[in-house]
Amino acid sequence: MRFVLRTRSLLSLAFIAIMGVYCALELRLESNITKFMPDQSGSQLAALSRQLADSELTRTMILSVQGPSLAVSLEAAGQLADRLGRNEEVEWVRAGVDPDELEGLYKLYFPRRHYFISEDP
Question: Are 50 and 35 within 8 A, CB to CB?
Fold first, then answer.
């Protein structure tokens, strides 16, 4: 009985060691989102998806600040923007909404507003 347990233990340890060596040599971790998209031969949509995945938008972070009141939230957002703007690792900071961009969004989405209607909201 001891022989069988010892053999099983040794085989288990050997298997774990072999799997550890295999994982150490073969395991590759990637964070490139294009690996999860369809390949170029799929369609023009796949090509467009790849271009969008490697755009400025993928390197942009949007922060939303919420507080007990609008005045407190605006003050906190302003302080956060000032502080981030002084950080050398942050390329640029934009706070608030540009009225020209709002007009552009309106022109883009208003004619297509009915596309957002869903039978199953």
Answer: no
